From TrEMBL:
Keywords: Hydrolase, Metal-binding, Pyruvate
Pfam families xrefs: FAA_hydrolase
Stated name of the protein: Fumarylpyruvate hydrolase
Originating organism: Yoonia sediminilitoris
GO molecular function: acetylpyruvate hydrolase activity; metal ion binding
Domain Fumarylacetoacetase-like C-terminal: 28-228
InterPro entries for this protein: Fumarylacetoacetase-like_C, Fumarylacetoacetase_C_sf
Length: 228
């Protein structure tokens, strides 16, 4: 007799630079409007206010290098972000202790069905239909803290077909990594396997089938994703 009534879903995991072992993903938290210029371009006040988060599903993360253009949308945007992967967690984590819970960092894209997200915003509904669709978070491999430290500055750039769309420095994040971890831990019990997408700078824009997105962050390598 088997333990489960259906086959167990596969474990979602990200590759790790320097090893064949993978990082299993438990949850994905995403912070919204964490760069002032992006807050402005989305029509919001960039002043430092209480942060807000939404979630993607673990199996939205994808390392194939391909982004299938999703159905039911004609306005899909790129959002380049650094991801933070946790090796441990807890509740009410102090900012001074937060970085001790980080396993590593990597590159990701928070792909967004902007037209559908906009409809949900106007109706006061959750953003899941615009954010948490299949393969909506292309990712690169994780770089362990033991190799790269804790990047609190560094140039982030996204090009589409060789043309720069987004460019900023990690030090321009309104809420820094320790603050994000601390804030989340006041509302959720964080744990090993949790991933935080740390927000995107200004310059978000639409992509089309055939486009090639190339993202870089100083010290964390590059990520190339083709829209198919």
């Amino acid at each position: 007799m088997t333990e489960y009534v259906i086959d167990t879903p596969p474990v979602v995991a990200l590759p790790v630079v320097g090893t064949d072992a993978k990082f299993p993903v438990r949850r994905v938290y995403c912070i919204g409007r964490n760069y002032a210029a992006h807050a402005i371009e989305m029509g919001h006040d960039p002043d430092r206010e209480e942060p807000f988060f939404f979630q993607k599903n673990p199996d939205n993360l994808d390392v194939s290098g391909l982004f299938p253009y999703p159905p039911q949308s004609s306005d899909v945007h790129h959002e380049a972000e650094m991801i933070v992967a946790l090796k441990s967690g807890g509740t009410d984590i102090a900012p001074d202790n937060a970085l001790g819970h980080v396993f590593g960092y990597g590159l990701s894209l928070d792909m967004t069905r902007r037209d559908l997200q906009g409809i949900q915003k106007k109706m006061g509904r959750p953003w899941a239909i615009g954010k948490a669709f299949e393969k909506s978070a292309p990712c690169g491999p994780l770089h362990p803290v033991s190799q790269v430290g804790h990047p609190d500055c560094g140039h982030l750039e996204l090009k589409v077909n060789g043309e720069t769309r987004q460019a900023a420095d990690l030090n321009q994040m309104i809420w820094k990594v320790p603050e994000m971890i601390s804030y989340l831990s006041a509302y959720f019990e964080l744990a090993a396997g949790d991933v935080i997408m740390s927000g995107t700078p200004s310059g978000v824009a639409a992509v089309e089938k055939g486009d090639v997105m190339t993202m870089t962050i100083d010290g964390l390598g590059s990520l190339e994703v083709k829209v198919v």
